[in-house]
Each structure stands twice: as structure tokens, then as C-alpha cells.
Write a structure and sequence with these properties.
This protein is 42% helix and 5% strand. It is mainly α. Strand 1 and strand 2 form a beta hairpin. It binds a DNA duplex (11 and 11 nucleotides) through helix 15. One of its GO terms (biological process) is regulation of transcription by RNA polymerase II. Keywords: DNA-binding, Metal-binding, Nucleus, Transcription, Transcription regulation, Zinc, Zinc-finger. One of its GO terms (molecular function) is RNA polymerase II cis-regulatory region sequence-specific DNA binding.
Length: 412
DNA sequence: CGTGCCGGGTT
DNA sequence: AACCCGGCACG
């Protein structure tokens, strides 16, 4: 769209840099605003636009930074600052992730890639600006360093996680637990990306990470690990898990922390299929006994476009005792709406025989035998998307629900 | 009153 | 189709 014109503009006149930045922040602000109005409106669109424009702008910025010589005069503080940041980033990424060196921008990981470079941007508000990226929706004004307030304004998932993405699995999973609750939202959700590949329960905290994982491990794209044709999208899904309610649920000096039950981070090191297996197993072991009794690590997966309705939560192995992914999971988590699915992308899991796990066996859980044929449907008592996700997350509902049709995800 | 969803409308 | 919504029954 306006992109071409803008970048051209840039090249032509480097002195416009500032105004460009201005433009940038303006754009951000606008997006934020729209996203903030969340209420019952189509946030999704905004979000899409948002991310897209972010992408564009990111690219733009790169152009800027590469094409423009910063006059020596201003080089002092800004540049120094920037250098510090850059250096720090380089160091961290070097020390933690030997694997990842993200070249330019690639289609899928473009976002995360650019996040990293966000630090290098000669923005006037150097450091603070850089951090505020992570959640554009939190602050409408980039110049205010105010701490991100809980903000119901949040959009459930800003596509990719934090600025530290793309780091690498090992780091990613550790990071997750180190990082002291990035933004405290309603119930401190954690967005994770789970590999759906058979027998692989790998969970990473970044989309980039999981994509890479899939690419290298499952798709066998070793050499050109940077190349992404988007196929990975099919093999992972986003999950959200709630750290708060976990603690609540155990309600005591709980011996099991979410982190432990999720996956043992300690073992993460490099990509190796055997390792992934073990990880999956650990997960299973931990999950199984717990999930029978009380909610521990609450998470639920969903794959968006929903007629594939809640495909198995697929914790490999645990599926066995799970009569039905959806109704099972909701049943033990009522008031604190803890987990929610996340639309990653309009992809479908052809991987898991979608249908099979769903319906049947249902009867076990659902209401006692009802003899009456009833003229009108008894109205299933289970919570439907609307209840589960709430109005503000309408975009997470199954399509049917969005259209006010009979819910396809939580059938009864 | 909120929710689930039928029936019917629009794109 | 895909999408949206008025309106009604149910709780």
C-alpha cells in the first residue's frame, strides 16, 4: 500500500527521518487506539492491520537506519545509548543462542526478527522506546515511560511474544520462567507455542522458536533453516496458560510450579528429536495425575477456525483418558477463566485426525439421559465460546458462535 | 438479564 | 458460501 511511496520518500530525503519516525509513532498510536476500543467490536481486523503495519514500519525503519548517516554532531548520546543497547543485545543473543542469527526479514519470522533489531533503531527515545514495543497496546503514548498498567486494553495475544523472541528454544523456555511476568494482565497469561507433531509436545515461548523447531526437526530443513514457507504453521499451535490460577488452584506452598509441570526446561539444549520425546513424556507424566484431580497447568489449545472444534489438547499420551478435550477441560475450571485458545493463524491441523477425538464418548460426561425429545433444544449447559472467552475476545470464538449459530466447539 | 442459537438478512 | 444480527426461549 503506502509502503512504496513511503520508503521511496525515505531514500530521497534523509532529513525526513524524524518525520518518518513521527509517522511511525503516530501509526502506532492509532493502532493502539483502535485496539483499545476492544469492546465488542472487531478487534481482529485492527490487529491484523496492526501487525502488518508494524511490519511495514519496521522495514521502513531498517531502511532508515541503513541509509542514513547520522551526523557526527548528534552521535554522542544517542549513538552511545544505542550502542549500549545493541551491544547488550548482541551479547545476550550470542551467549544464549548460538543457533540463531536472523538475517534480514523473512516472511514468517519477520516480526520477531525485527524485534531484535528494534534495539538498534536510532529512535530518539532510545531505550524506553525500545521496551515499549513489546506491547503497543499497553501504552498509547510511546514517550511516557509509565509502567504498563494491567490494561484490559490488552489484545489477548500480540501475535508474537516479547522482544526477546527468536532466541532459541532453550533460552526461550527458560526465559519464560525467569521473566517476571511481563505485563500483568487479568490473570497473567502465558502464551506458548506447542508443537503438534506426533509424539512431540514441545512447547516454546516464541512463534519463531517453534517454527524453527518444526522446520529443523520435523520438516528436516536443516541447512536453510531460515527459509520458511509457512508450512510450520500447520504444525504448531498457540496455547495460553495461566500462571496465577495455577498457584491459586494449589492454594498452598505448591510443590509443583507451572514451569515444572509444563516441560522441564533444564533439558532443553539443542534440537534433537529424542530430547523432544523425553520432554513430551515428562510433560505427560506430570500432567496425568494432576489433571485428574485439580487444575494445575491449565491450558487449552485451540486451532481457531473452528469447525475443527477444539481439537485435542494433545498432550501426547494424556489424550487417552481425556474423553473430550473441550468439555473435559472446562469442567474443572470454572470461575477463573484461565485458559483460552488462541488463533495463531487460519490454519488447520490436518495433522491430528481432527474428528476422531471429538464427539463420541461424550455421553459419559454430558448430562444424564434425557428421555424427552423436547420441542426445543434443552440448551446445552456447557459453557460456550461466548462464556468461555467473553465478549472481548470474540475473535477467539468458534465461527459458529461468532455468527450466533450453534456452537461448534463446545458441543453438548 | 445474560446466554445460546434459530431464522432470516446481507455481502 | 461466509458473515451478521434481530429476536426469542431458556436459565
Amino acid at each position: 500500500m503506502t509502503f512504496t511511496f513511503q520508503s521511496e520518500d525515505l531514500k530521497r530525503d534523509s532529513s525526513k527521518k524524524l518525520s518518518q519516525q513521527h509517522l511511525f509513532s503516530l501509526a502506532m498510536e492509532e493502532d493502539v487506539k483502535t485496539a483499545d476500543t476492544k469492546k465488542p467490536n472487531r478487534v481482529l481486523d485492527h490487529e491484523k492491520e496492526n501487525t502488518r503495519s508494524v511490519c511495514l514500519l519496521e522495514q521502513k525503519r531498517k531502511v532508515v537506519s541503513s541509509n542514513i548517516d547520522v551526523p557526527p554532531a548528534r552521535k554522542s548520546s544517542e549513538e552511545l545509548d544505542m550502542d549500549k543497547v545493541t551491544a547488550a543485545m548482541v551479547l545476550t543473543s550470542l551467549s544464549t543462542s548460538p543457533l540463531v542469527r536472523s538475517p534480514p526479514v523473512r516472511p514468517n519470522e519477520g516480526l520477531s526478527g525485527s524485534w531484535k533489531e528494534g534495539g538498534c533503531v536510532p529512535s530518539s527515545s532510545s531505550s524506553s522506546g525500545y521496551w515499549s514495543w513489546s506491547a503497543p497496546s499497553d501504552q498509547s503514548n510511546p514517550s511516557t515511560p509509565s509502567p504498563p498498567l494491567s490494561a484490559d486494553s490488552f489484545k489477548p495475544f500480540r501475535t508474537q511474544a516479547q522482544p526477546d523472541d527468536g532466541i532459541d528454544e532453550s533460552e526461550a523456555s527458560n526465559l519464560l520462567f525467569d521473566e517476571p511476568i511481563p505485563r500483568k494482565r487479568k490473570n497473567s497469561m502465558k502464551v506458548m507455542f506447542k508443537c503438534l507433531w506426533k509424539n512431540c509436545g514441545k512447547v516454546l515461548s516464541t512463534a519463531a522458536g517453534i517454527q524453527k523447531h518444526i522446520r529443523t526437526i520435523h520438516l528436516g530443513r536443516v541447512g536453510d533453516s531460515d527459509y520458511s514457507d509457512g508450512e510450520e504453521d500447520f504444525y504448531y499451535t498457540e496455547i495460553k496458560l495461566n500462571t496465577d490460577s495455577v498457584a491459586d488452584g494449589l492454594g498452598s506452598p505448591a510443590p509443583v510450579s507451572p514451569s515444572q509441570s509444563l516441560a522441564s526446561p533444564s533439558t532443553f539444549s539443542t534440537s534433537d528429536s529424542s530430547r523432544t520425546e523425553t520432554c513430551a513424556k515428562t510433560e505427560t507424566k506430570l500432567m496425568t495425575p494432576l489433571s485428574r484431580s485439580a487444575p494445575t497447568t491449565l491450558y487449552l489449545v485451540h486451532t481457531d477456525h473452528a469447525y475443527q472444534a477444539t481439537p485435542p489438547v494433545t498432550i501426547p499420551g494424556s489424550a487417552k483418558f481425556t474423553p473430550n478435550g473441550s468439555s473435559f477441560s472446562i469442567s474443572w475450571q470454572s470461575p477463573p477463566v484461565t485458559f483460552t485458545g488462541i488463533p495463531v493463524s487460519p490454519t488447520h491441523n490436518h495433522l491430528m485426525g481432527t474428528g476422531e477425538q471429538r464427539q463420541h464418548t461424550h455421553t459419559v460426561l454430558s448430562s444424564p439421559p434425557r428421555g424427552t425429545v423436547s420441542l426445543r433444544k434443552p440448551r446445552g449447559e456447557g459453557k460456550k465460546c461466548r462464556k468461555v472467552y467473553g465478549m472481548e475476545n470474540r475473535d477467539m470464538w468458534c465461527t459458529a458462535c461468532r455468527w450466533k449459530k450453534a456452537c461448534q466447539r463446545f458441543t453438548d
